[in-house]
Design brief:
Layout lengths: L2 H9 L3 H4 L10 H21 L2 H28 L4 H55 L4 H53 L30 H18 L1 H27 L7 H12 L1 H16 L5 H19 L10 H17 L4 H27 L8 H26 L2 H41 L6 H30 L3 H12 L2 E4 L2 E4 H25 L17 H24 L8 H13 L2 H16 L7 E4 L2 E8 L3 E6 L4 E5 H6 L2 E3 L6 E10 L5 H13 L11 E7 L4 E10 L3 H19 L26
Antiparallel strand pairs: 1-2, 3-4, 3-7, 4-5, 5-6, 8-10, 9-10
Amino acid sequence: MSFTQAQESETGIDSSVVAAPKAIPLTAIIQNIQKTNEDLKLIERKLEANKAVHKIDSLYPTYASHIEKQQEQTHKILAANPNRQKIENLYTKWNGNRIYLTGIEDDVNNFVSRNTRLLESVDLHHRTWDLTLEKAKNEEAPKEILTRITELIKDIEGIDKAIVEENNTALKLESKINFKVELINEIMEEILTLKNSETYDIFHLRHDPLWKISFSKSKKSSNTSVWEAASDSFKELISFIKNNKSSFYLYFTLILFLFGIVYFLKRGFEKYEFVSDDHNLNISKDVILKHPLASFIFLSLLIGNIFFTGTPKLFESILILGLIVASSYVVKPQIKEQFKNIYYIITFFYIIDSLKTYLWFHPGIYRIYLLLEAILIGVAVYLLLKKLYKTSNPTINPLSKFLIQLSPAIYVLVFIAIMSNILGYTNLTDITLKICTHIGVITVIFYSLLLILEGISTSLIHRHFSSKSNVDFIKKLALEIKLIKILRVVVLMFWFLFFLNMIELYRPLRDYLTDVLSEPYKLGTISITIGSILSFIIILASSFIITSIISFVIDDGDGEGILKNLRLPKGIPAAISLVIRYFIVAFGFVFALSSLGMDLSKFNLLAGALGIGIGFGLQTIISNFVSGLILVFERPILQGDTVEVDNLLGRVHKIGVRSSKIRTFDGAEVIVPNYNLMSNNLINWTLSDNTKRIDIFIGASYDADPNEVLEILTKAGTSHPLILKTPPPRALFLEFGDNSLNFVLQCWVHYEVSLVTKSEVSVAVYNAFKEAGIEIPFPQRDIYIKNMPNSIPNGSDS
């Protein structure tokens, strides 16, 4: 069966549905021949670019042989009764092989998918030109045209054949790779079954008591020497690096980007002075400002540990040692003098315990090795902490307090390790020593990560607020402290997960929770799981958290977000923020429903009913919603504008989806529906600019010289610092009043200071009039009384 037939049968491709080829008119044949040749050349270039599969195919036999050798070696190791750490190392190694082969399998599958799409395009050309050739013959086209069409069809058939051959080769390779992946899965299942067997139970009596130990070589002992084991680990590391060159190139690109971020954060503290009385915030600042290189190296190694999955154990150990060294520069300034040597002790015992993973020992020597390791751990902890037991220092930092509180548990674990080793419970000895030697490592690494993350968060918030013209220090401090508390909870959770993984409880706990969360429950015709409900809640919560972060970063309510350097028109950042947030919430809601396993097509009836409800009962809400969108995009008012609507004067505090908040100048916050803002007469005092004209009316007595009054008014306007020079102040004589000469002084000022300026200029005018002796008249009325009540007329008799 050819590839084309197989592909059509598998995917259900119907060529008649994909395209409907039509014969090309005789007059357009030459132009279409040229266009088809260009398309064929483009397809050939894409085929050449996809030749990487041939390289994979040529290298596959070597890798398959390597897998077979590793399989033989694994069976030898499992037959030699290895310790728990070597079992875990084997599982990690095979998991790395599976990840590598699965990645290659995906690449080959993508190659096949791309070629399939190319094949559909070629097939469409083939059928089109077959019809065209038949039509040209029927219309008795010139021989030269028929020849050109025939040659083009042969070229199309050649490319079609090449694509089919490429895909057949790729499918064979994919089948081989899949076979090896299945083999690896079986080996990993075998290793995991052995690890979970009674032999490796921590309370299993695996060896004879120490006093009955024999140093004669056991038949089950591995023939692998110490140097051979170390050499195999090193060769495995070199092979991993060679097979993942492209991943390393991408990784180095990422850390270059990371270097720019760390430098950007450091520049934030240098550019804007950071002053705080909070001790934790000052520590966060010092981590980025004083130790940027150590922070960069630490984050680079940590990203490497996450970026490279399924790595050899030696590669992982090297990364962890690098993390310990880098963290020393971050954490040491926070450690008291008595703890300065803790890094040497942690590193030493981590190396001592890790050697058991790579080297093979005689069973008797291995027991002695474990005994000496346990004794050394107990002595080292005692010597490190003996001075602190005698003193009580309230200023000891949290890490030092944690180590002091941890010391009794270390002594108990050391005692258990010694006694279990002596009695032959070596599985228990391995796990207790692993806890003793690794608990300090993961604690120091996670504490360093916490300090660096706190430094990053503090730097970002400090730079965000400090770059504004008006800094709200109370809000800035509250946000910095709140984010530090959140980071501490998150890092503590991850520390706990790593601790569970260290004591080998993470995988069984994860499997148990997976089984519980994936257990289906029936609610009528709907089948749901606890996991899907949690996914629904987490997706929705994450959507709203992301929208809050976007709102804070892009548009923090004052137009001075991250987009301010683009100098966009006022209100555009708010519109961008709103659109992004709506999209995230909408997609988050759709993904959340999908996580419940619901078919969204079943909501069609509900959507129709909702539409009717909107038409009758939700008109006001929808009108307010639409008005809110118009306000955001048309921008008749912007956040921070001073507006007047319905005899309400105040500043726009927030433009929401349904309503907007206007804060009046007497301190009240008024919730105004958006529809009212759009339908009523709205006065925006600061839309295009924030300048306003103030008019100061004043009268002078008829004895005053109008020219002198105009000169005084003009001088009072031009001399005030808050009055704008353009347009200049203007003094005008208005009219001859009943009892005064009426004047007006017109000045332009910024709206925010209009009331203060009007008051100060009015006082200045009054003082100038008083100094010049100009009287400011007030209305006066003379009353003439003709007759008094009960008065006696002149000349009458009394």
